[in-house]
Amino acid sequence: MNDLISVPCVLMRGGTSKGPFFLASDLPADQAERDQILLSVMGSGHPLQIDGIGGGNPVTSKVAIIGPSTVPGADVDYLFAQVRVDQQMVDTSPNCGNMLAAVGPFSIEAGLVSARGATTLVRIHNVNTGKLIEAEVPTPDGKVAYLGDASIDGVPGKAAPIALTFMDAAGARTGKLFPTGQSLEYIDGIAVTCIDCAMPMVLFDAEAIGATGNETAAELNADKSALGRIEALRMEAGRRMGMGDVSDQVTPKPVLVSKPKGNGDLNVRYFMPHQCHPSLATTGAVGIATACIARNTVASRLTGLRAPPLVLSIEHPSGHLDVKLQERDGKIVAGILRTARRLFEGHVFAKPTKRLFCAA
């Protein structure tokens, strides 16, 4: 053996994201010690994360921690951690809907949920937001199926479909759909919508920062002037949303919106927050679609006010993402189709923390 810490781990792709999945019981209960393990595992603090398994990009520097549910009406707890690439920082304030797609399959194969019939419903309590999400996982012959005919933009090939239903995503972080009390306001003369639905975000027209909205993610990431303006808007939006100084947080996420260039309903560029997402976050899509059915938002100004039930197609740099919206008991329920894949299972190694932790 060696002098590193060995922790059981499963590497999974969830939607358009990828990262290690851990059982909560295999990580330290102490948050600070747990975060040090995650930083070491991912190799954070280096742009390539060369000393860890992170991929040098925010969409591949994510962690899912799964355990038995601690609340009624759910099967499992899911804690998401965004591990910064360039800094020694772990942020557990947001949820990640793409990684969420792999929570159901992981939970079944980890023995936390029993497969039931051809499709197994897994009720997931997102610890970050306190919200409930339902995942329908294909389980023919009592085992998880990863192969299938479903495809999502941003991921090559086809896979088995996983249907995610966000039961009530409004106020995920702040407790309010519109935390500032307004659906439309101005920051430095720019019309913005500060919305908290699945993910706290600030939406604004791409033209307001001198963009068209049709740029590639790489083009936007190279525009330092635009990135500076986006960050200034994000900082002020965070303050107005009651989140305080958000310089060390990944929320609220800035979103550039524009008219569709194809057959979609809206075109977006979603930031994570300091790089443009190569496609679109699932949680971001839920919030953006919800903004399209709310009066006088930056989004509904472009799409025209819509009413559920409906399916909204949101264009992004890699294609489009469809969100099905319907109303149940006065609450908006959002459905999205994703896929997932189990990539690797075994043990990952971390450097010892101050207090030596050994996984069982």
Summarize the entry for a quick read:
This protein has 7 helices and 17 strands. It has helices at residues 31-42, 97-100, 103-109, 217-222, 224-240, 282-292, 298-303, and strands at 5-14, 17-23, 62-68, 76-83, 90-91, 119-126, 131-138, 162-166, 185-187, 190-197, 199-205, 253-258, 266-270, 310-316, 319-328, 331-338, 340-350.
Structure description:
The chain is globular and about 60 Å long. The chain contains 7 helices and 17 strands. The C terminus is likely disordered. The protein has a 17-stranded mixed β-sheet that branches. Helix content is 18%, strand content 33%. The chain starts with a strand and ends in a 10-residue tail after the last strand. The protein has 360 residues and is α+β, with helices and mostly antiparallel strands. Helix 1 links the parallel strand 2 and strand 3.
Rg over C-alpha atoms, rounded to the nearest angstrom: 20 Å
Class computed from helices, strands and strand pairing: alpha+beta
Hey, roughly how much beta strand do the residues contain?
25-35%
Can you count the beta strands?
17
Which parts are unreliable, with pLDDT below 50 for 5 consecutive residues or more? 356-360
The residue fraction in helices comes out at 10-25%
Number of helices: 7
Q: What general form does the structure show?
A: globular
Major beta sheet summary: 17 strands, mixed
